């Protein structure tokens, strides 16, 4: 790989913080284990076929650009997952945007099966589940804190698996800019990197505000629809800030925001209804508390009540339906996840700075 052969020289010349991970100096059977341990900071990593570890290879070159993490990454065929327990435990609430330089990605998203060819520009929401299979791949990615990108997005919570047409004007702009930014990263000063990061975030928002729901139709872009999206975002923000309120519901929201109940029902109809949205947000908060070591002293019923569930039986049924396990099962299974005593990587693979950056972004 040409880029790989240049990575050490680029790192030596870089003005920005840089991290380099490379398995080439490890014996073949050890390469996948090292890669799984490193990427395991936010994704579950698996082999696509038994025996692939004998031929596995991976490398990644990452830069901290303002508060974004920009990476060039290539690896053998890999399965990547991000399950509800991991989402709740690590609190990594970022977007990951990838330009697929080479290879393909297949993604399971609810009832939809999505396939992304070479050249595709894809957004993954790390606050949501992820279920993908990558062929041997080469990609450039950027991880953006949610607080920085979400305010610019029309549908900040509905873009997991969204892709920009690489032949569209905005698709070409994002892909070209990301690749160019990676190439230029070693020469950028901190001030230049900050300006470049701002431009990139705005360009990503421009591109993904023009795509449809993953697996669905395009959204269009007329003014009434844009206003409705902005209004929906405002209501969603209010709901998230008042989940502990026992009377949270259409009446309370309508009175607080000056929106009619009928308007609220219309706004939330495309995403399953306002009651379902409130329940989903409360279930996510309960999941976070159930896997948190800091909340281990609290009873399951206490956590449920704190987030608005007054009936323990109803809560347990809703929780299992959503996450596939009872609250007690989730709490027991979460114990190993709470430990951060991961063994050190073999120094032959380089450093693990990218892991610390990912945990600290935003």
TrEMBL record:
UniProt-recorded name of the protein: Helix-turn-helix domain-containing protein
What is the top-level taxon of the source organism? Bacteria
Q: Which Pfam families match?
A: AraC_binding_2 (PF14525), HTH_18 (PF12833)
User: Which PROSITE patterns does this entry report, sorted A to Z?
Assistant: HTH_ARAC_FAMILY_2
Q: Outline the extent of the HTH araC/xylS-type domain.
A: 233-333
Keyword DNA-binding recorded? yes
Ordered alphabetically, the record's keywords are: DNA-binding, Transcription, Transcription regulation
């Amino acid at each position: 790989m040409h880029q790989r052969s240049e990575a050490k020289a680029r790192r030596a010349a870089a003005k920005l913080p840089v991290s380099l991970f490379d398995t080439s100096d490890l014996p073949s059977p050890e390469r996948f284990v090292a890669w799984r341990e490193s990427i395991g900071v936010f994704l579950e990593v698996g082999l696509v076929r038994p025996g692939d570890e004998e031929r596995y290879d991976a490398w990644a070159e990452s830069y901290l650009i303002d508060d974004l993490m920009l990476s060039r990454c290539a690896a053998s065929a890999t399965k990547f997952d991000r399950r509800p327990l991991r989402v709740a435990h690590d609190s990594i609430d970022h977007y990951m945007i990838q330009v697929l330089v080479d290879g393909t990605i297949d993604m399971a998203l609810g009832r939809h099966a999505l396939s992304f060819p070479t050249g595709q520009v894809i957004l993954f929401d790390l606050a949501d589940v992820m279920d993908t299979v990558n062929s041997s791949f080469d990609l450039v990615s950027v991880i953006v804190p949610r607080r920085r990108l979400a305010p610019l997005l029309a549908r900040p919570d509905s873009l997991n698996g969204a892709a920009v047409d690489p032949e569209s004007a905005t698709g070409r702009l994002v892909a070209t800019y990301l690749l160019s930014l990676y190439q230029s990263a070693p020469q950028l000063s901190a001030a230049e990197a900050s300006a470049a990061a701002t431009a990139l975030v705005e360009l990503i928002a421009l591109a993904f505000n023009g795509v449809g729901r993953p697996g669905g139709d395009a959204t269009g872009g007329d003014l009434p629809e844009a206003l409705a999206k902005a209004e929906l975002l405002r209501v969603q923000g209010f709901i998230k800030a008042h989940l502990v309120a026992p009377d949270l519901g259409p009446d309370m929201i309508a009175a607080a925001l000056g929106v009619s109940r009928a308007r609220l029902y219309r706004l939330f109809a495309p995403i399953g209804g306002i009651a379902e949205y409130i329940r989903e947000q409360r279930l996510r908060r309960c999941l976070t508390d159930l896997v948190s070591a800091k909340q281990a002293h609290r009873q399951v019923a206490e956590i449920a009540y704190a987030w608005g569930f007054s009936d323990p039986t109803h809560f347990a049924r809703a929780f299992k339906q959503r996450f596939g396990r009872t609250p007690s099962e989730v709490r027991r299974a979460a114990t190993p996840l709470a430990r951060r005593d991961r063994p050190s990587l073999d120094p032959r693979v380089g450093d693990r700075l990218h892991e610390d950056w990912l945990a600290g972004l935003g």
